[in-house]
Design a protein that fits this description.
By secondary structure, the chain is α/β, with parallel strands linked by helices. It is built from 13 helices and 14 strands. The strands form 2 sheets. The protein has an 8-stranded mixed sheet, with helices on both faces. Strand 12, helix 10 and strand 13 form a beta-alpha-beta unit.
Length: 405
């Protein structure tokens, strides 16, 4: 039996591609064992717990979001967790490790490489994340979604496969209607405070007649613990009948298929889902994403004529109302945008990553590298903690920012 470790987590942008690859590995090799590695801080505890997946938890701190002192604490903690990560790789007899970055990806990948286990990284964004950037000289494979990312990687390691998605995301017919628009608002798995405020006000401006001839209804995902405030704002603006407000959408594929236009952040997984289903979008990137990667993601779609990209500083209610009204009045434009998005889709990404990972897993191991990783007994609070920790810290508790993107 081949064991594949997939490490990362934190937000939906990491967790759902992890699941997509894991499911594809099991589909390609039913006898393979897939084990995920994350932390109690991310949504993996809830999502993978509900699915019954095998999940190992490490106590790792974020490197970003807390300034220099936060980086130092995170790096020190990652160093201390390396012996635990190495014991985990040995105990599970992992044959290959895939890292999506995030809190757990770095320590598990370094531990695996020290044992000669092949390591791959998956970078869904147009800019390499910090963990993947640090790991890139050591990896056998780098699976990427944007051509721009390849410039920072060793050419022989690169596989331009796209963002792995779950099977539910597939092209849906698009039948645009003139003057009538069903909007879907997605702020990522944590929600988006800025979208929660500006979108209702922009729709109110349209409804009040400043943008005539447009009939808009909306499904608005707010993020957990933000539903009541957003629902209250829609009611205050006289839009309660037009808006369906929910904290989280479990079936995003179905929601995308029902939408005429999507207003969203620009995390890589969100954009991959938009392209897989084929929907026009207005993208308002999270301005504090690492290396401003969301803006670069959004501009990549805008250059392909699949989306409108608006920096958050420019996303006033008047600007957003104008863009919504413009798209509502131009069904042919929306249809072209939908086609342009669909042309960017990579529906076989998960299967291609899985097949390549299994090939790596069956190859001879590398010579072990000598890293300064200690041994000895683990502290009690560092012992491996497995799935079913549903009472763990809430999603995004240690992100230290508005949202995870």
């Amino acid at each position: 039996m081949v064991t594949v470790l997939i490490a990362g987590g934190g937000t939906g942008g990491h967790v759902f591609p992890m699941i997509a690859v894991g499911d594809a590995v099991r589909a390609a090799a039913p006898d393979a064992r897939v084990v995920y590695v994350g932390t109690a801080r991310g949504i993996e505890v809830r999502v993978m717990g509900e699915r019954g997946d095998s999940l190992e938890l490490l106590h790792v701190l974020p490197l970003r979001g807390g300034g220099l002192s936060g980086f130092v604490r995170g790096a020190a903690r990652a160093g201390r967790v390396l012996p635990e990560a190495r014991r985990l790789v040995e105990r599970l007899d992992a044959r290959v490790v895939l890292s999506l970055g995030g809190y757990a990806g770095g320590p598990v990948s370094l531990a695996a490489r020290s044992l000669g286990v092949p390591v791959a990284i998956l970078e869904p964004n147009s800019v390499l994340g910090l963990s993947n950037r640090l790991l890139s000289p050591l990896v056998d494979r780098a699976y990427v979604a944007f051509p721009e990312t390849t410039r920072a990687l060793r050419p022989s390691s690169v596989r331009l496969f796209g963002v792995p998605l779950r099977r539910a995301f597939a092209r849906a017919p698009y039948a645009p209607r003139e003057g009538r628009l069903s909007l879907l608002v997605l702020g990522g798995s944590q929600g988006a405070l800025a979208l929660n405020d500006v979108v209702p006000r922009a729709i109110a401006q349209i409804a009040q007649g400043r943008e005539r001839g447009v009939d808009v209804d909306v499904v608005h995902q707010t993020g957990r613990d933000r539903e009541a405030a957003v629902r209250s704002l829609y009611a205050e603006l006289g839009l309660a009948e037009r808006a369906r407000v929910v904290p989280f959408i479990d079936d995003v594929a179905e929601a995308l298929a029902a939408a005429d236009v999507v207003i969203a952040r620009a995390g890589a997984s969100t954009l991959a889902e938009l392209c897989a289903v084929g929907r026009p979008s207005i993208l308002i990137p999270y301005p504090f994403a690492a290396d401003d990667h969301q803006l670069k993601n959004a501009l990549s779609l805008e250059r392909a004529s699949a989306a409108v990209a608006i920096a958050q500083a420019d996303a006033t209610e008047a600007r957003l109302a104008g863009e919504i009204a413009r798209l509502a009045a131009a069904p042919a434009l929306r249809a072209r945008m939908a086609d342009a998005a669909a042309a960017l889709a990579t529906p076989d990404a998960a299967a291609r990553v899985a097949a390549d990972l299994l090939e790596l897993a069956r190859a001879p191991r590398h010579r072990a590298l000598r890293f300064p990783i200690g041994g000895g007994a683990a502290r009690a609070d560092e012992a491996p903690r497995r799935a079913a920790m549903r009472g763990a810290a809430p999603p995004g508790a240690a992100l230290g920012q508005e949202e995870a993107g």
